[in-house]
Design goal:
eight-stranded parallel β-sheet, 12 helices, two-stranded antiparallel sheet, alpha/beta, TIM Barrel, 14% strand, 46% helix
Length: 291
Amino acid sequence: MFTGTYTAIVTPFKNGQVDEPAFRDLIQFQIDNGVNGIVPAGTTGEAATLDFDEHWRVIEIAVQEARGRCQIIAGTGSNSTQEAVELTQKAEELGVDGALLASPYYNKPTQEGVYRHYKKIAESTSLKLMLYNVPSRTAGEIGVETCARLAADFENIVSLKEAGGSAERVSALKKILPAEFTILSGDDGLTLPFMAVGAVGVVSVASNVIPKQITDLVNCFAAGRAADALKVHLRHFQLFKDLFIESNPIPVKTALYLMGRIQNEFRLPLCEIGKTNQGKLHDTLSALKLV
């Protein structure tokens, strides 16, 4: 079962290559601060611009560095079903605990096509699978009924990262999905309201920067300490907003650079943050005593 705090971890680069020492340090930073798991090679990890060897290497490093101390859920989604199958099977060989699969982007499949996409993947692996609904990126969604159909038909489809921006949708999902099927927020600013209607954690961007605080927020709410969770949420709400002041992962990688953890390097077509936005992000980090 996937519950708690999972960091959608960045992929640091140096001179055009994956910066393996910095990546290992980031993973250790996450583990030291109590996250339940790490999601390498997802959207925040710039998976769209990793070649296959880099994609697999990033996952392999995460497994090696974690050494079973937290879960590794590999990003293996694609708009090509066969490519997603191959990525997922390779991730399974590398020893991950699960796979995160964004709904097919660009193609704009019907809900039947979305169902068949996940069916093909689920039948190709014994890994536990987390669906990923992020319509702002994919130009389509995994419908509520499609989620329920997949959960009913495939025992290894066990969770959903929900980044559709609607607590109402989470409510509808909770009403129709099996009790053991878990929903995690895909948006740090919505973790608390989503948990209020049945989500059980977050796949977080902000936890790259503040892993302990995000873990505390989730754990406090899960333990019935909603007021304490709200304090954490309100203290860091501006950071949640500023980490999306430009396209993810530009702001979060910039924050890590300002904190001295990684190089300020991206893969085109992503590039450095604008000067005005960098100043605003620096002010927010400074107010939280992170720089």
